[in-house]
Amino acid sequence: MSQEGIFLDSAPADQLQSDVKEKKGRSRLGVIVTGVLGGSLVALYAVAAPFVAPALRKVCLPFVPATTAQVENVLGVLRARSGTLVDIGSGDGRIVIAAAKHGFQASGFELNPWLVWYSRYKALREGVHRSTAFHISDLWKVSFAQYSNVVIFGVPQMMDQLELKLASELPSTAKVVACRFPFPTWVPENTAGEGIDTVWVYDAKAFKSHLQHGMTRKTTPEHEDTPESHT
Ligand SMILES: C[S@@+](CC[C@H](N)C(=O)[O-])C[C@H]1O[C@@H](n2cnc3c(N)ncnc32)[C@H](O)[C@@H]1O
Questions:
Q1: I need a labelling partner for 144 at 20 to 30 A (CA). Which of 14, 69, 176, 203 fits?
Q2: What is the pLDDT of residue 109?
Q3: Which intervals of the chain form a coiled coil (predicted)?
Q4: Residue with CA at minimum distance from ligand 1 atom 26
């Protein structure tokens, strides 16, 4: 057989080999693309789910950070106070961190772990990590009995339940500050700011005496009444 004949015979085999290589390369690329896409979707879900979850609860309390004026109003009405402070649903930690900078031993309770990790990082960066603590917790499943200053930026649908919970847990020396939405039956001793930045201050002595004058409503939503320890 001539040299030309040998060359012509090996051409289909070479072609076949390069087709197989190309196919292998394409399927490897497919696996990588699927892996990256799947991984990205899982990561996106892991980040977004905690932000969406509050909207799916019976009482929807979404992450809406306090405005600068709101934070200033909270600190303004508490300027004569000291000791422990808790922000219920602490979001990105801005109230807790600002309170720590004003000398409070400040804690936050927050359902969304990303916001809690971010708050801890921010407290560290801003040098107040020793006077702050952030807990991943459901506000209905922990007690606030140890706090003498309580801040809540809630929604109207939860305020009546929270009135009962705080009235039964807090010491009579405590003060409670409600941001944007007041408590429905308590009478505030003071207010500050206006519009969406308004804050209302309540004295525990007053609202606890209210409680003693006969009310027996339930303090936790029916679907969330198992006690829980916090991290
Ligand atoms: C209106 S934001 C207030 C954030 C923060 N206190 C501030 O003023 O900037 C309410 C926060 O409560 C959190 N939250 C919602 N349901 C909660 C629950 N059951 N327990 C604890 N935190 C909750 C939300 O994730 C959100 O960050």
A1: 69
A2: 98
A3: none
A4: 63
